Amino acid sequence: MTLLPAPAGTGLRFRRIDLEGRPELEARVEHVVDTQRSTTLGKGAVKIHTVEHILAALAGVHVDNAIIELDANEPPISDGSSREFSRIIHEAGIVPQSDAREPYRLTAPLQLTVGDTLIAAFPHDGFRITCTSSDRGGRFTQHFSLELTPASWEKELSHARTFCFYEEIEFLIKNGLIKGGSLENAIVIRDDAVLTTEPLRYPEEFVRHKMLDIVGDLALVGRPVHAHIIAIKPSHHANTELARAILAQMRKPIEAAQTFAPPPQAVVEKATARPETRSSKADSRAAASGGHTSGTSTTNTAASTATPSEAVVRDGATLDVIQVMKVLPHRPPFLMVDRVTRIDGNKITAIKQVTMGEPHFEGHFPGHPIMPGVLQLEAIAQVAGILMMRQAENAGKIAYFMSAEDVKWRRPVRPGDTLIIDVEMTKSRGKIGKARGVCSVDGETVSEADVTFMLVDR
């Protein structure tokens, strides 16, 4: 495993260098495919197992952007804790970036019951975890509470090792879940005995490791969270379900405000303001140190010679239709984007208001108007083209649609519908971009596709 610096807005991403094309997988809860004994991310044929320990190490020291390169389907197990990961991060060093670090502050309590697990999150000014763990028989019940900071993470949680009960081992071996497992990288509890190659590192090492897992699993929200997490008998399944609930709360007010009202004037002015000059010091330090990057300073943006598309296509900006037309060459009736409501790293959300006045409804079909599926596909391609304009070197170019794969149309789109277009860039190399797009109406998916396009000069 190699940890590499990454530009602001990248987030935490895994890269499988042992697979053709070196595919990348963003560390987001949407990609969780299995939570049996550990957290597994997957997309298509690409899977990465046991991601929680390395994600906890990065989140624990407030690293927001990094590439995690792997030549296998899971990170090294090391000693079953995050200690070695934290050590190499400290040795490499952490570099502040120009973008502001904006934790999400929980706005209302959340509570989930998943099997034997009760887990809840409450609004809090920082990040605190209070946890109680035990087995089903109530053995080795432990309790611990901690306010998480980089210093407390390093001292109080990062050294806690994974553990299992002796009676679980046969099941784990038969299901291929502990290949390479030994007392060198895990603690085994048999009856009242604790089997380990060294003394316990903490009096409450079991519950502290559970808290370590919570830190790693909640990193899949994709943004730091300010909340007080209270967990009883936590599990990876419950942790990731809480991450989903936090993400849903985070998105709900934004989607409602941006769907039913124009963007606030202050946001529009900010998006179109002439940007300030950015110092390259942080970038050069990151490249020189081989370290990881953590956004902790105030936001500075691109140089003052930016083109119109550079000025508006950036994280946190919203674009009205006038700004969209500064970025895209398309014009009515072939402009399929009315507004961009979210730009966040490799993801973008846009809106298309479907109206009866559009010319294709005259013949598609008389008395039964339905938006052609190919126009939904075109909307995905146009939104993906906007996202490509985040990179300064792409400003002023046109995105040519090259191919579409895994296309599905699930239900008709009719006049009066508001089409929400969500696109995630999955690959960008040179002039070629690949993206996954999903169109939805009232929260229901109506179409989806993987699209490939090429950027050319106008």
Task: Characterise this structure.
The protein is of the alpha+beta class and 458 residues long. It folds into two domains: 256 residues, 2-Layer Sandwich (lpxc deacetylase, domain 1); 152 residues, Hotdog Thioesterase (Thiol Ester Dehydrase, Chain A, Roll), CATH 3.10.129.10. The chain is built from eleven helices and 24 strands. The two termini are 41 Å apart. About 12% of the residues have low confidence.
Q: In CATH, what is the class of the largest domain?
A: Alpha Beta
Distance between the termini: 41 Å
**Which band does the percent of strand residues land in?**
25-35%
Number of domains: 2
The CATH homologous superfamily of the largest domain: lpxc deacetylase, domain 2
What general form does the structure show? elongated
* Total helical segments: 11
Structural class, from helix and strand content?
alpha+beta
Q: How many E strands? A: 24
User: Would you tell me which CATH topology of the largest domain applies?
Assistant: lpxc deacetylase, domain 1
Give the mean pLDDT.
82
Largest sheet: 6 strands, mixed
